[in-house]
Fold 4-hydroxythreonine-4-phosphate dehydrogenase.
Amino acid sequence: MSSPRAALPVLAVTLGDVAGIGPEITARTLLSHPELRERCVPVVVGDADSLRRGARSAGLDPETVRVITDPRAAANDPSTIEVLQTGPSLGDVAVGELSAVAGDGSYRFVVEACRLAREGRVDGIVTAPLNKAAMHAGGHIWPGHTELLAHEFGVKNFSLVLSAGDLYVFHLTAHVSLAQAVQNCTPGRTDDVLSLAGAFVRALGKPEERIGVAGLNPHAGENRIFGHEDADVLAPAIARAQERGINAHGPVPADALIPAAVRGKWNIIVACYHDQGHAPFKAVYGDDGVNITIGLPVVRVSVDHGTAFDIAGQGIAREASLVLACERAAALAPGWEDVWKAASAGVASPA
């Protein structure tokens, strides 16, 4: 019989951009919240020297950072931070400044975490924030974490999902311009995201959960007065989803759907573009929200904030979102195979 310790999911916690608040909030999360060790085995994928500096900034003992080589051999001692050194030391990177070296490091940390997941050496991935401009300067041209992770796992159908409590906000599009987002709201993409949402609620054991789709245009187009996409793209996709047994509804004007979701009338909603979902979500939930990628073979949860160069190294960054990300990943990891099977069984519809 396996011990309770052996049953805990091992989480690869990527350090993010070491010039930002990632090292500081990671140190605080793993040293100031011992209760996490009862739910998971967090192992940092990153840079030991940057972590030590982050611990020092947070007023914690930098000597608690311990380099290990195998995540499955982690001791999970709440008085230590166990880290897999990934590449050369980044301890000389200036804090609070855009750095190609730090951007390259943040990319390497994610790629290494994905490799560990593919090899079955970790059960989930939790990501501290990276800086897209720094990553690009480092030679890695990805819109963000989500797209890089999808590439590393070889998946085409995935969605950025913001979550707080029982609320999950799927996105038809994410890190593209608004003009490109409108173009990307195709019948096929809408079908795929509704399939992901349907798979997710089935895996949660709630196949009848209502899924609300936000309109792309004001008033969901109002009978094509403000655009044709709602009537010609979203509404037919919702009808097709209903035919597949998915309890989808809409399109509903976003200014009606999202406030109703905040009040608890919807638990699963679909936003059409980045700011339609992100802006109200962050305004309401702040540090109480996380970012989950649905469509990957392993659970990935992230903080829902950026690198905060303006306060990095000052010891004032809040770790609440990273703590929540670890908690959510630990809760989802044991049943994630059901989410993956359900999501990967979906069939893409017309482009």
